[in-house]
Amino acid sequence: AQSLISYYEAMIRRPDPTAVLQNIPQPVLFAIGQFDATIPPDAVLPQTYLPSFSFVEILNHSGHMGMLEETARTNQLLYRYCDACQTVVPNH
Question: What sign has the CA pseudo-torsion 10, 24, 59, 71?
Fold first, then answer.
């Protein structure tokens, strides 16, 4: 029980990522689980407009752990994102 309490207290105290997302020069990948109860899509989607360039993908069969729930799809997204970053941000 104490571990869960500590986890949630740390999550509450973590810094707001808004400034990071607004100022990052590189493209950002958002892989959003359609059934994510921890960070629901409706809470994430407004953040996708903060970076100057975003890739937004909805994982239709995932909750919060898309990398485990849809491993092949997540890997495909990561490969496509990395390839696109080479085009969008050459020499990085």
Answer: negative
| DSSP H or E segment with residue 8 | helix 2-13
Question: If you search the block for the tokens 């990395």, which residue do you land on?
Answer: 82
29 by DSSP, 3-state: which?
strand
Return the ∠ at Cα 86 (arms to 48 and 81), rounded to 5°.
40
Cβ atoms 8, 57 nearer than 8 A: no
CA distance 31 to 55: 8
pLDDT in tens, 3-34: 888 888 888 888 888 899 999 999 999 999 99
Q: Is the pLDDT of residue 90 over 70?
A: no
In contact, 54 and 28? CB cutoff 8 Å: yes
Q: What are phi and psi of 66, to 5 degrees?
A: -55, -30
Is the confidence at residue 70, as pLDDT, over 90? yes
